[in-house]
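Let's study a protein:

===
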Amino acid sequence: MVGAMSLSDARRPARRPLIRRLMLHEFRSYESLDIRIARRLVALTGENGAGKTNLLEALSMFSPGRGLRRAESEDCVRQGAPGTFSVSIELQTDGHLAQLGHGFEPGEGRRFRVDRLPVSSARAFAERLQVVWLTPAMDGLFAGPAGDRRRFIDRLTLGVDPEHGARVSKFGQALRGRNRLLEDGGSDPRWLAAAEQEIAALGVAVASARLETTQRLQTLIDSTRAEASAFPHAVIALQGELEAMLAEHPAIAVEERYREMLGLSRRRDAAAGRALVGPQTSDLLARHGPKDAPARDCSTGEQKALLVGLVLAQARLLANLRGAAPLVLLDEIAAHFDAKRREALYDELERLGSQVFMSGADPALFAPLEGRAEIFLVTPGRLEARS
């Protein structure tokens, strides 16, 4: 479950981790790269296909999971390379310098290191670095499939509770195991009952963690919103049978009811080829707060501004709950905003306190950041400091 820390007791000044050095070897379009970074705002500009998103992806993989592209590790190896890649950063926090690294080795899979010592997974990075991102693929979040929104809230929940990802994975495995038993038809009912007991426990834990995180995010949004902001506040809620029950009943009672529902729906689920009730069917609902309208019905520009506001709130929540400002990655962030809203975005990012890496093809988009940010020109396999 999500830890017991509340927003009220987490309002101490957040630590502000700062990546001082980034090293890549055989990652995507980079044979070798070693750059030093001095500022908190970092802009990457260059033609499409130059490798800007590759850099952001390398940084996103310091969080649990497969990064902002959700790519398989072997797909991140540079074409023509021997089959391995490595990414390393030097992270400065409160005067202390740590080295974090991740990589891939054929036959061994992903590898992770902290101060050059091996650790079991990217979850070991969580105490030192949280990562939040926004990519063009997320622009359709509000109007797209519910699965995209579940992944969004799962990423946020994972930042609050590092064990959430493992529970989601185990829950999916348990569902698939039950599906196979239902396909067999003549499976021992005791096996099905045992599978459903496990599904009920995991499913309620997943739903509870998502629900608590969503409520915490809404509480923060309500306490910090400004009606005149260029990035309107969102009103969010989880929709699902388990979530509705958890709002009214203790988790242990919901777990028992969910187990009963699974038992009663075996024939229906067997016909459908999947379980039709549970957190795998839940949805994150969002409304445009100032307009009091469903986010999916808003214009493309309004949805983008609303999404930016939601990601900024996500970063603030993680800073409050974890006591450290997260790394923020914004891919092609400014292209669809007018000059006034771009200025507002850059002002918001400066106030955020996070280190922010942002990308954009047109260098003119970052002109207002001259003297405020470190700007790099990205060409295939290379970076050149512009300011």
The chain is about 35% helix and 20% strand. Residues 189-224 form the longest helix (36 residues).
